[in-house]
Design goal:
By secondary structure, the protein is mainly β. It is 0% helix and 39% strand. It has strands at 3-7, 11-16, 19-22, 28-31. It is globular.
Length: 49
Amino acid sequence: MYGYGTVGSTSTTLGTADDGSNSADGTITITVTNSKVGNPTARPASKPL
């Protein structure tokens, strides 16, 4: 089960993600409905860590 929340000087879990999976190659995919995270606008995907 995957969750979502905020991270700062402390971490706060706000709820359960809508979906999540991890692949054999180490990729983690987590899906959260836009309305749960402030309705963000589209932007380029994050770079791998």
